[in-house]
Amino acid sequence: MSINDVSVTFTRAGTTVEALKDINLSLHEGEFVALLGPSGCGKSTLLTCMGGLMTPTKGQILVGDSVVKEPDPRRAAFVFQDYSLLPWKNILDNVGVGLRFAGVSKQERHQRSQELLDMMGLSQWADSHPGQLSGGMQQRVAVARALAMDPSILLMDEPFGALDEQTRRSLGESISTVLTENKQTVVLVTHSLDEAIYWADRVIVMSARPGKVMAEVKIEQMRPRPLDFIATEEFAQLRSRLFLMLNEAMGNGPHANPLEKQRA
Ligand SMILES: Nc1ncnc2c1ncn2[C@@H]1O[C@H](COP(=O)(O)OP(=O)(O)OP(=O)(O)O)[C@@H](O)[C@H]1O
Question: Where are the beta strands (DSSP E) in the chain?
Answer without folding.
Answer: 2-12, 15-26, 32-36, 58-63, 66-67, 76-80, 153-157, 185-189, 202-206, 213-218
